[in-house]
Amino acid sequence: MSKKKLISFLIAAVVVAVLAYLLLFGKLFPYSPIALGFDKHELQHVVVYVEKGAMFNRFQEIDSCIPMVENFHTLKFRKKPRIFLFGDRKTYADRSLSKARFCAFYNGDIVVSPWAQKEASEGLISMEIYLRHELSHSLIYQQAGILNAFRYPDWLLEGIAVYSANQMGTSWYPSKEQTYSYIRNGDFMPPRFYKTQKEDQVNIVARPRTPFIYCEFSCIVDYLVNKYGKDRFLAYMKELLNGGNHDDVFKTNFGIRFDESIEEFRQSVMQQS
Fold first, then answer.
1. Contact 101, 130 (CB under 8 A)
2. What's the pTM value of the predicted model, to 2 decimals?
């Protein structure tokens, strides 16, 4: 073998080794077909992986979430979503791309942190509500495919997830009335700024900041559903699964420019007391 071919072979071998490590033990773990260190539980609607040594027995509660999520979105999962329940903080830090309690990946798989399970057992959060939130992401990601999922509007993903899970007014999430009050007092995250460099420039007094932002987006979804009907809203949501231009899809479905509609929403909030 020539020196050039040997170097190419070694580089390829290193790349394969690194990729294998990331899939099995690193940040690409949710994309791996093999879940080392986890016990598999295949249920009617979902596949649950529990880290060895972790105590968990609420499988039917998880399984029952799937039909609720599908019914709201009027979509079906293309395949059973995989949910990974971690029992060790270090393992979670090593194998999750997120530090959040729950995280849905673009392939539709979901990871659940050890502290989320502890908070659920202590009654601080609802496992069902949080899972329905993440399963909303998972369903949209599966239907869209990884490329279109990556392009799906982030504000809309969160708004749909909170709205469909009835998450407002639970745990650290403000109620609709509280969210409206914050908006009237000047707090508002323009949807176009979310997940951009401009996001940090927006002053939000409400705390915790992220739950307020999610609830604001949920209120926008609620506004669209109430004004135009759920069927029209779902048509808009589904058309975006194909990767269409958001503003064009919005105008086609609602007959108004997106920015104009957001301004109408803000004005409607300001007029309520």
1. yes
2. 0.91
